[in-house]
Amino acid sequence: MSRLPFYLLVSLLMLVGIGLSLHRHLQFDVPWFPGEQRQVWEIEAQINLTARGEPVIVDMALPDHQQGYRLLTEHTASSGYGLAFREENGGRRAQWTIREASGPQQLYYTVQMLTAPDARGPLQEPPALPRQILWERPFDTAARQVIERAWARSASPHTFARELIRDMSGERQGENARLLLTQFERAPLLVRLLNEAGIAAREVSGLYLEDGRRRQNLSSWIQVFDGDDWALFQPETGEQGRPDDLLLWETAGQAVLEVQGGSNSRVSFSMLTHNQPAASAVRSQLADDTLLNFSIHSLPLEEQALFQTILLIPIGALVVVLLRILVGIKTSGTFMPVLIALAFIQTSLLTGLIGFLLVVAVGLVIRSYLSHLNLLLVARVSAVIITVIAIISIFSVLSYRFGLNAGLTITFFPMIILAWTIERMSILWEEEGPKEVLIQGGGSLLTAVLAYLAMNNPWIRHVTFNFLGLQLVLMSLILLAGNYTGYRLLELRRFKPAAED
């Protein structure tokens, strides 16, 4: 039969697994290695206002995912106020409401933003151009001449915006520009002139991030669109581009803060930065499962801890497959070493080895006595299970009495598997002799130790827990190994005499 469908299946599993893992790393910044640190900015917005003893509505713009930054968590402190988060004109806003309030009021909003160079914000639609812009005399003539002058020295919407801003400031500021600035504020005026020239633009607000700063204010920027592409301009200097330490707080071209039922309203910002493990920094994003972001982070922590161990089993299975198929090591039971390796993870390697050898040795002695009773298989195995439980209980009590608390972890061994291992080794001893018992027992322990070393590796524990797509990669590797029909490494020693000749 053609092996093409088999290799297509293996390739599909490999590509899908790698693709899902790359998607989680690139889209959600899940780190490849444990212990990686990420910079997180914690920003607090404090709103102050004076209520007039009537219903109060406070509406404030909120930041969102954007280039270089990803929103992690947010919370508010507003005693007695109702709160709602809503989307409006492509921007996020928070609205606080109260039926009656009087005197000074303080509202707080805190957000954590993760510094993520690969982060991207939602696609922003260009604002609609106003149908008609009305200017009073003599400002209409001045606006027209300023636009014509900048238009002649530009070649695109972005270059026009740069030349227009330079004409409005510095040494190039002419009489027309000075006349307009006496009537209009700079940022709204620039937006109005750009719209007059048929260029989509709006005023946005940004916050410079500096560790330990308090009572900071937002700065105005001009966002200019050229089709779907946009660029930021500093309205004072005409400098194009977004600084790395600038967080865009309001991007919909609306007021940052609107208050009804109060006066003297203002908002100020304080900020701190700290580093924290990358895995915990992005955990809040991973809690929302989607088809491409399928993970177990949405489960309760108890179940997550359980799955963290379960997801290691395919690693142990891969080790067993490679050692049995490619190397040729014999084991007592196919996947018994994987379960023993899981017990080693709970007990530590040295304690687990000593406990395993003691239980199996004592169990073999008792099993040799049971063989003289000529019991049926089910009864004999049941008696071995009870014996294993008794042995583990006795060793645990004795170790505790002697102050060896590590001996208590022997209870993590799978008792059914130990009973079957003792049964199989006892039968093997009777049929093949002690040499074969040592070969298979030693192979089982060697395989269990190697599986333990692989499964207990911090990097492997990290990637198997955070990248579920790797389970498909492991499946494809196991299928490829299962297709191997050549010589095992330990079988090559049969050709040693031929090599010597």
UniProtKB/TrEMBL annotation:
InterPro entries attached to this UniProt entry: 7TM_transglut, Transglut_i_TM
Domain 7 transmembrane helices usually fused to an inactive transglutaminase: 255-497
Keyword Transmembrane helix (UniProt): yes
Superkingdom of origin organism: Bacteria
Swiss-Prot/TrEMBL keywords: Membrane, Transmembrane, Transmembrane helix
Ranges for domain Inactive transglutaminase fused to 7 transmembrane helices: 23-182
Keyword field contains Transmembrane helix: yes
Residues that span the membrane, as ranges: 305-327, 339-366, 372-395, 402-422, 437-455, 467-487
Signal peptide coordinates: none
Listed name of the protein: UUP1 family membrane protein
